[in-house]
Predict the structure.
Amino acid sequence: MEFLLVGFKALLNPQAILWLLISVVLGYVTGALPGMGAALTISLLIPITYYMDSALALIIMGTIFTICVYGGSLSAILLNVPGTAGSAATCVDGYKMAQKGEALTALGVSTGASFFGSLGSTILLILGARVLLKPMLALGSGEYFWITVLGLTIIASLSNKGMIKGFIGGCIGLLLSFVGQELITGSLRYTFKSFYLMDGFELVALIIGFFGVSEVISMMTTKQKQIASSNKLTGSLWRGMIAPLKHPWLTIKSFVMGFFIGVMPGVGYSISTWLAYNSAKRSSKHPEEFGKGAIEGVIAPECSNNATVGGSLLPTLLLGIPGSDTAAVVLAGMIAHGIMPGPQLFSKTPELVYTFYVGLLISGLFIIAMGFLVLPFAAKVTVLPLGYVAPAVAVLCFAGALSINTNILDAVVIAVIGCIAYWMKKMDYPIVTVILGFVLGPIMEQNMNRAMLAVGGSVSGLFASKLSWIFIALAVFSVTQNIVRQIKERGKKDEEVVS
Amino acid sequence: MKKTDKKEPKPEELIFAILIVIVGIAGFIIASDFSKRAKILPRFVTALMVVLGGIQVWNNRGEFAHMKNLNGFVKNKTLLLTILGILVYPLALRFLGFTVASVLFMFYLMYIRGLRAYLKMAILSVSVPVVVFLLFSSLAHVHLPTGPWGF
């Protein structure tokens, strides 16, 4: 407890407060702009933090990480363009709410959920650091493989207009993920002798193309004059912010899920948000409302993605194993400051660690502050004429694509993908399944190969442990439940048509 | 009792399904050249694509009769012009630079969307790319393409 007080005292100086405010603004802007993200922002700030106190540098990195993840929901809800990979799930229901004129409510929900996710994961980090880590790291390649298969079964629940279309989308995503160099064997696949394709496609480029550019085409061709269905915004920011309190079990389940998935190295918030979304849909009394603007559809992914921040920092601080790509950049920043991760960090310099925790707690409070200050103005984008919004979004999308590798070919890729995605959307193919397949494909393949190599190349490596069978059972249950649900819904629709 | 609702013809569903089957077959054949371990999942996924695409072709086999409805796409001028603009814009980025290409692109999109308040369009077309250029180059030190005029 005394170390927490030391942490609070360390922040009570003008320099720390100023840098905290700068980090919050930077994190929010870069989170909202597609293509930028926390990893890029933190990596650019590391040289600036060389001349600072190590504790302050850690706080800056943690704050940008937290606020950036939250900031991604702004463009996801208002424009259907996820600012970060973790906000893709928020697009599904958040944008639908914005289209109904409830952008303020949706933004409020994301603010409240992000706050609770951030708060919950920081508390878990403070209370349970060493206790939680051991069981999570006991998972091997076989278990990770089945976790990703479980993640892919979410496709079944995301495919409201037919599971076949959803699985086709997932296959397209998986196929796109195979392009480039295979990680274990090093062999080149589907590169057609192109240098550009040797590195494979970038996730951010795919997200910008599938969500952003396709949405620009939709905005340009719709008869609607603005994003919202009416000229007036009917939502309430405050009502949105307290919505997670009205769904306490969903909020707790989502941040616990996000935290534990964040702990798993290499898994990240791209997956935790979808798992949380799927879980929320399955446990909801009104699952048919998901995909049409369900508040729970925004609470679950937003709570989960902010909880993943704390989770991914746990193995980073304790073992030097980054839980995500952004955590890897934070680790690089720590090492640059001579802060070596590991148990000695907690035993020899606990005040440093607790100052960092305090920084994370306070950045959670800044989420609420940003909500009240920025969102009422930001929500007005949904009532601006689409003739002005669509071109601006298009330019932002292409700038985001160019920020990945400063390569014009990324811009070409998002243009082509955007056109294909628009066509898929018109035919009711759920494009989110493409992203899910793309994200999970490499993790699944890597772990499959590792698990098989560990037993001399045999498939039995995937079924070796009891934990694997638990995940297999969960995956089978997930698919079966969705098939049964869709059959029931189709039966109900047929009855309605006949009557 | 029969369903009485009339389904809107969607021949593009059939075309997309056929394309999925073709891509699946091509992907499966190309994967034969990969190393042993590297071809496992690609072959599985492409085979699955062929099966799922085949099911979709079967489900939409009635759309063969509605192929003439495809010209609806060509008749949608705004859609065609938007897609054309989006595909040409990356090439314009290469030769004109981010700022100039974006100014022209934004004005073009606003025009085909039906806006005619030329002053407002001009102000927005210039200010948004300039702000985005400054944001990305100064905040993130991203080198956006510059044309022969340096911006």
User: Anything to note?
Assistant: The CA atoms of residues 98 and 174 of chain A lie 30 Å apart.
